[in-house]
Amino acid sequence: MAGSSQYTAVLDANTLYPAPLRDLLLSLAVDGLYHARWTARIHEEWVRNLTRNRPELEAQLGALVELMNRSVPDCLVENFEGLIAGLVLPDPDDRHVLAAAIAGHADAIVTFNLKDCPADALDPHLIEAIHPDDFVLNQLELRPFEALAAVKKMRVRLTRPPQSAAELIATLERSGLAASAAHLRQAQALL
């Protein structure tokens, strides 16, 4: 696919590392609120960091990566490596994410590391860096019914352990989504 008619976002590894945020971002993508993209290298980064901190999860992560790749059509960006050398970012190790966003025809990079994706480096490519909380809040405000339905489906899938709407919202808040959690509290009865 040469591009997507949907708003397209490359998910940085730091947004895929925490399970609650990963689940939420994927739930929104699977329900068609936006087109999520990533690379094998982004997968390697979050899996490596999670395995380092939670080695007991290592055996499950390969299957999780495969499930993610199957869940979102056209999610894997390939053939981006040739762009890396020509890009300048404050942290050269982040150039592969911008290269993926360019090659993947993304509108945005969803990342906690906004300082590493300054507008002057992204603007020429018509790409914005957006914090996960702002990104999720945008989905909740732009398409409230669809977004709330996706969050509810996500909550219902949580069985180990099950979570009430209030518990899920608290979990998302602890994951760095303060504004999104506040918004979800107003619609808690629908979750």
Please trace the helix and strand order, writing H or E for each element. EHHEHHHHEHEHHHH
The pLDDT mean sits at 94
Low-confidence stretches: none
Number of domains: 2
Describe the structure.
It is a single chain. The protein is of the alpha/beta class and 191 residues long. It folds into two domains: 8-135, 5'-nuclease (Rossmann fold, 3-Layer(aba) Sandwich), CATH 3.40.50.1010; 143-190, no CATH class. Helices cover 55% and strands 7% of the residues. The chain has eleven helices and four strands, in the order E-H-H-E-H-H-H-H-E-H-E-H-H-H-H. A four-stranded parallel sheet has the order 2-1-3-4, sandwiched between helices. Helix 8 packs across helix 9 (144-157). The longest helix has 14 residues, at 40-53. The mean pLDDT is 94.
Briefly summarize what is shown.
It contains 11 helices and 4 strands, in the order βααβααααβαβαααα. By secondary structure, the protein is of the alpha/beta class.
Helix/strand layout:
Layout: E1 8-11, H1 13-16, H2 19-30, E2 35-37, H3 40-53, H4 58-71, H5 81-84, H6 95-103, E3 108-110, H7 119-122, E4 128-130, H8 132-142, H9 144-157, H10 165-174, H11 178-186
Parallel strand pairs: 1-2, 1-3, 3-4
Relevant terms:
alpha/beta, 2 domains, four-stranded parallel β-sheet
